[in-house]
Amino acid sequence: MNKKKQITNYVVSDLIAASVVWLLFNVIRYNEIAFYIGYSSLKSYLLSDVLEGQLIVPFFWLFLHYLSGYYNKPFGKSRITEFFTTFITVGIGVVLLFFIMILNDLPRSFHIYYHLFFSLFGLQFLLTYIPRLMITQNGIYKTKKRKWSQHILVIGAENKAKDIADNLYNSGYTIAGFIVTGEKAQVAVDPAQVLGTIHDLAAIIASGRIDELVVAAAPIRSEELADILYLLYRYKLPVKILADKSFALSKVKIKTIIGVPLVDITDNNLSEAEKNIKFLSDKLISALALLLLSPLFVYIIRRIKKDSSGPVFFRQERIGYMGRPFTIYKFRTMYEDAENDGPLLASENDSRVTPFGRIMRKYRLDELPQFWNVLKGDMSLVGPRPERKYFIDQIVKKAPYYYLLHNVRPGITSLGMVKYGYAVNVDEMIERLEYDMLYYDNMSLIMDITILTYTIKTVITGKGI
Question: Does one domain contain both 415 and 283?
Answer without folding.
Answer: yes
